[in-house]
Please model this.
Amino acid sequence: QVRLVESGGGLVQAGGSLSVSCVTSGLTFSTYTMAWFRQPPGKEREFVAVISWRGGGTSYADSVKGRFAISRDNAKNTVYLQMSSVKSEDTAVYYCAATTRSTAWNFAASYRYWGQGTQVTVSA
Model:
């Protein structure tokens, strides 16, 4: 059974930093491309960041580029998202996702496995 479990969400002040993580089990983690998506209140789920299975390739949504950093530890089957200089518009439920696809990484439909999400709230 494949499981993705996010943790680390919470309340953070605007301009601050927060890190969320996603521990996986039941899949060969090192062969999966991993991504973070988020769903702001009342909006659709959107792409945030992706990291290749080797960890050498990353890509970010324009809205978080330069502020967020995705990383992975294949020995721990874990993917991380470090968020800095957070803004109120970063408030959302953050989801990690896994895929073996090599294209269309910014589309939610490309991902087979999803976590349950973790809430991140940025206060003014």
